[in-house]
Amino acid sequence: MSYPELDWRTSFQEQVKTRKSLFEIALAPRKSVRPSQESTASSQTEICLPKTFKFQFIQELHVYLREPKELEALLQEAHIKIDHLHELESRPQLISSKSFLPLEWFDDFEYDPMSPERWLSIENLQGFALVQDSESLQWAWRLVTVVDYDISAFLWTVQGSFETWKVPRIRLYIVHEDPVCFCERIGSALNSRSDAENRLRFYYLRQLVDVEGYFDLSSDMAERFSKKSSEDALAAFKFLFRKFQIMLSLNICLVQNEWLNIKPIPGVVERIPPSRVDNVRNLYSFESSFSLIKRIIMFSHPAVSNALEQVHRECEKVRELSLFSLDSSDPITLAEFKTTNEAQLVKTMRYLKNNWIEKTTMQVHQNLLKAGRGWFDVAVDDWTVYQSMKLYRLTEQIKYRMQTALRDLVLSSTDAYFHRLCDPCVLALTIEEDYIWEENLIDSPFDSGLRPVFYLLLEMGDDVPYYSTDPDEFEPCLKILFEEAVACTHDVHQIEPSLLGSLIFDPYIFLSSMGLMDPVIEQRRVFLTLAYQKTIIPLKAYAARYLQFKELFFTNVVEYVEDVRTNKTSLQVKEEISFQIRMRESLERTLPLSIVIGSFWINVRPLREALIQKRQDLTAALLKMLTERLCTKTSDVVGEYNEINEKMCEKPVSIEHIYDIREFMENIPDLLQNLEDRMKTIVFEYEILEFFRHALPDADFYQKWHALAFPQAIMKQMVAVQEFHESEVDRFRKQQVSDEVEFGGKVEGVNVYISKFTTIYDVAKVAEISIEVKKLWKTINELIQNGETLNKRQELFELAAIDLSNLFELKESFESYKKLWTFAAEYINVEESWRENPLSSLEVGTIAKTVDYYRTSFQKLLDSFNEQPQIGEVVQIFLERVQTFEPHLKIIELLQHPLLEPIHWAQLARAAGIKVKVSLATNFQLFLEHNIHQYLEVLCDLIQRAQEQKEETERIEAEQEETRRKEQEYQRNREMRRLLRTEI
């Protein structure tokens, strides 16, 4: 089965390239008649202009037109549109009225009044060129300057305000040529192109209807001719006759079927003399030939051509689609690229599966309904009939057209996808796996100059630098997108099931698209894989170069500054700051904001700024640390200055204080000299901050200059202090005399009070007397200390010393009295605590030591008061009290015996007549109140019985343990015997 329309397109493309004879026919010399006489057809591209003067001769340069609008107006008057000059049918159609041959092929250069060399010799030659705007893509006439001419390509180079174009002469009007003749030149080219395209369509249509056997000589005519001529002559005649018959039949067919948009070709009937035309028409019958043509070709009805034209239009829309979205002006991430392309694929496939099939089916169905019943009856319900109809050939033609459009869509989309992704990666195809980035970090040897596709952000990880998207993800992702796009085109249905509703088709009838194993697709897929496998090698190598900045990136500013503060001097800090500044400047010079590697645009700005900022932070932290260090040092110096000043300016409270200040003031010059030397060193360190142009805070600035001015202020203050001290010495001398008199009165008063106080012997008031004694003792010590202070001042004032011997004798005589009442009060308090505390809290050893201490102390006091019998009796009273309590130690020890149990305590309480329950928690005073010493025998007897009971209990427990042990031994022996019997 042949498909004429498919063959027509392929054959026609070959004809355009190789068959020059057709163009020779199209460009044959015209007769000297006006175009209006040659054709009267009302075609869109038929331009009829009076050709009055073909050649121009420029005698002098004259500007005919000054604005492109004037030329457009002339062209519009001549019915010439801009579209006629540039718009071409990308795929020529047999039934289309659109042009498919470039207009410049038919340009008549004889219209040019001067040669290109003569034109270019004119300075600043201007003209109007029909060019396409790069942004809006609109065609328009623009004022340009002619700069050059390419003699091999027949193209003129023109220059606009910002762009340069190369245009053919047919689209370039020079302001010095006649605009009317230029319009005629365009009209002539349009007429020539229309005639050539019409002839190409006619000759191809002739091939379609050249069916063997239908246009041959009749057998009778061939037999008569063969008798009168040779075989070669007969063959030549048959060829000419066949060609003549087809031409005549086609001319008649085209006259009756103007919808084909093909004009009859003159040259057959016209060659016959007019007197013999009717005889020829009567001699040959063309009705059967015409019927044969209508049966052979599908274009037997205008609806068919309209349907195919609309199918062609829909197929052209498909060819303009894309399976991928590649128009992003800026680099995008892989995720965005994947999302965008998946959405584009879904959108395109939705159109292919739904809109394309539905529109094509609807338009074909609407047109075929106009054809009615017959060869194109869409209501056919018999499969055998359908296969013998022209409708079957038409649907096959539509299927192949749609398949070709679909394949073209796949080829163009994958080609654009392939070139868009792989072209930027070409420079990386020759590198090896062990590639190391040895170049600088700014210039990329893999920048092809093309617009990069993908966006990557370079970041610093805990282990190594990394990209925002793993480079290893690109190759499989791009490959999957490529394969999915190709594979999805296999699911586009044919239009037959939806067009022919009365026939039953398999539900899985799809258009044939490009397969994944097609050599072109496979080659592109393999190259895409290779390109990205190679491109990620320098990508990873580039990231590895940033490993050298890892330590800097993760440097802790606080720890770094603390280490410098601890281990480095100010000069070393200066060197460290200089180093940080140099490193920051180096980063600014050596790190780029971004870099292109193949199809990847790598954003290095955040990492670069982070590294530079880290250097700046370290520099600022070091300057701040140095500032704080100098502030601390300066503050210490100022503090010492303040201490000197404060100590020197203290208001003296005594003559001793004045002498201390004077002694201190003698050392002030040396102290100031030391501080000034320290401040010079600090000022030198301040120059480090000035070297780096670091501004001090206002407080630090004032503190620095305050420290430098402090020594002079202190020296001035010393003079004022010395004058003040002279007046204070006189005041303290007068105060010393009055203090001496007051001291004598105090000593006399204390002496009298002690004499009266020592006559008190009331034992019942021991607590009050002990308090008064302590107060008097403290007063005596204070008087002695005050007297010694007055004597020191007497010496400073160069006066006689005060006699303190009577005061020391008074202290010595009062010491024994003080000890008596102090010991007595202390012992009474201790004894009361023993009586009131529970038995469990009393420690016999500690009590015994305490009783022994106070007994010894009171015995010694007896010797001190031999000459004072009344006080001796008081001592004897307290000594007897101590001796009275001493036997109670034995009772406490017995009561604390560990063998006493509640039953023993109960028996002791009954024997002593104690009405309450007693135990170790009972106060010792309770036992003393019930005369426990009278029941020592009962207590000892209880303790003895408790010991005997304990021994008896221990004996019984030992016997029980022995019995238990023997029983266990018996049971063990018995078990052993049982086991032995079992084994036997």
From TrEMBL:
Key words, A-Z: Coiled coil
Protein name, UniProt field: Dynein heavy chain linker domain-containing protein
Taxon lineage: Eukaryota, Metazoa, Ecdysozoa, Arthropoda, Hexapoda
Domain Dynein heavy chain linker: 809-973
Coiled coil: 936-976
Pfam family name, one: DHC_N2
Entry keyword RNA-binding: no
Keyword Coiled coil found: yes
UniProt xrefs under PANTHER family: DYNEIN HEAVY CHAIN 6, AXONEMAL-LIKE (PTHR22878:SF68), DYNEIN HEAVY CHAIN 6, AXONEMAL-LIKE-RELATED (PTHR22878)
InterPro entries xref list: DHC, Dynein_heavy_linker
